[in-house]
Design a protein that fits this description.
Elements lengths: L1 E4 L4 H10 L5 E3 L1 H5 L11 H16 L3 E10 L6 E2 L12 H11 L7 E12 L2 E13 L15 E3 L11 H7 L1 H14 L1
Parallel strand pairs: 1-2, 1-3
Antiparallel strand pairs: 3-4, 3-5, 5-6, 6-7
Helix pairs in contact: 5-6
Bound molecules: inosinic acid (IMP).
């Protein structure tokens, strides 16, 4: 069965393709539309995930899914949340975003945070949601160079390492996205 993953992120596509049973042929956004940029105008992760999967379904009628992720920091009232990609402004770098988080948490004792991923799946016209969450804390400085985004400043509960100090396999096993993808895969496989 063909299914569209509304993403062009090669890393995410590889992860999903490796986990889904053989009968699923996962197409990327590029495979279906060529160059396209879907505006993420929602104010929640669910809304943004939904916008992307509906975009594909309404134009192609194909089964599809999409994901949206945010880092939610308790002492910052859930920021950067749905705005995680552009927390420090349009076209900002991962470094700019981490710098802003560390600055906003200067002198703050409560470092609790979580990563949340929401997947919206549209299968035969019905929409389903799957969520993955990992709790942890924000360090006072960066540690590690692997991964991307906020990985160097996020340490999951129960671990000594930040996400940026883990191998991709180790991170995928416990990460927000890994857990959400696992739920999607179990649903599609059943
Ligand atoms: P997206 O919805 O997956 O594109 O994620 C939005 C933003 O959240 C990214 O641009 C990153 O800044 C951040 N992010 C998402 N997933 C991760 C992760 O696994 N580690 C660190 N940062 C992440």
């Amino acid at each position: 069965m063909e299914i569209v993953f509304a993403s062009n992120n090669a890393h995410k596509l590889e992860e999903v393709r490796s986990k889904l049973p053989m009968e699923f042929i996962v197409l990327s956004l590029k495979d279906v539309f060529g160059e396209v940029d879907i505006p993420e105008t929602g104010t929640t992760l669910d809304a943004n995930a939904s916008i992307k999967s509906r975009y594909v379904f309404e134009r192609t009628g194909k089964n599809c899914f999409s994901d949206d992720t945010g880092l939610e920091i308790e002492a910052l009232n859930g920021e950067p949340g749905v705005y995680s990609a552009r927390y420090a402004g349009e076209n900002c770098s991962f470094q700019d975003n981490m710098d802003k988080v560390l600055k906003n948490l200067e002198g703050v004792e409560n470092r609790k945070a979580c990563f949340r991923t929401v997947i919206s799946l549209i299968l035969n016209g019905e929409e389903y949601f799957f969520e993955g969450r990992v709790d942890g804390e924000i360090l006072t400085q960066e540690s590690g160079t692997a991964g991307f985004g906020y990985d160097p400043i996020f340490r999951p509960i129960g671990f000594k390492e930040t996400f940026a100090e883990m191998s991709m396999e180790q991170k995928n096993q416990i990460s927000h996205r890994g857990l959400a993808v696992q739920k999607l895969v179990e649903f599609l496989s059943s």
